[in-house]
Amino acid sequence: MARPAADPGAIAAAAARLFLERGYAGTTVRDIAALADVDPAVVIRRFGSKEALFLDAMRPGALAAAWRRTLEGPLDGFGARCAEALLDARGDTRGVFLALLRASDAEGIGSQLRRAHEEGFVAPLRERLGGGADADLKARLAAAAAGGMLYALWAVGDERLAADRDALIARYGAVLQAAIA
Fold first, then answer.
1. Residue 2 pLDDT more than 50?
2. Euclidean distance between CA atoms 181 and 169, whole angstroms
3. What is the mean pLDDT of residues 62-79?
């Protein structure tokens, strides 16, 4: 019996499910192909490599899009807007963040994540701050601080940090605001 035509969306959905469940290292192209009901060669033909499929399926740009939305409005409210947006990120964003973090040492993934960090987080804030060397440092500090909060909450699981949501938004918002001041 012939397999159905390979739908790139179905392959990416199967990959996302497995990468979230098993991580990058624990997921093979054969596993993805089996779940998507396609030949493993089709997976490679459609996406080029496991790394490319991982980045497509995990969509690091979703978190960057949320970050860019926090840049709308006056800069003096950026810190609180950013902290609140990060706390309100959907559960799938958390899974993607953790999958990306855990795969960051895999060949090909780390360089792509650095590019996504630069293009999705640092560059938009640097531009919003008016450019220049000082704006670059401020943007990098804010991006690092935001990532640090997500790491503490999602990778480490520091529940006490998030115990008082309003206090966390106010205090972490102040940290982020200080980074761009």
1. no
2. 17
3. 84
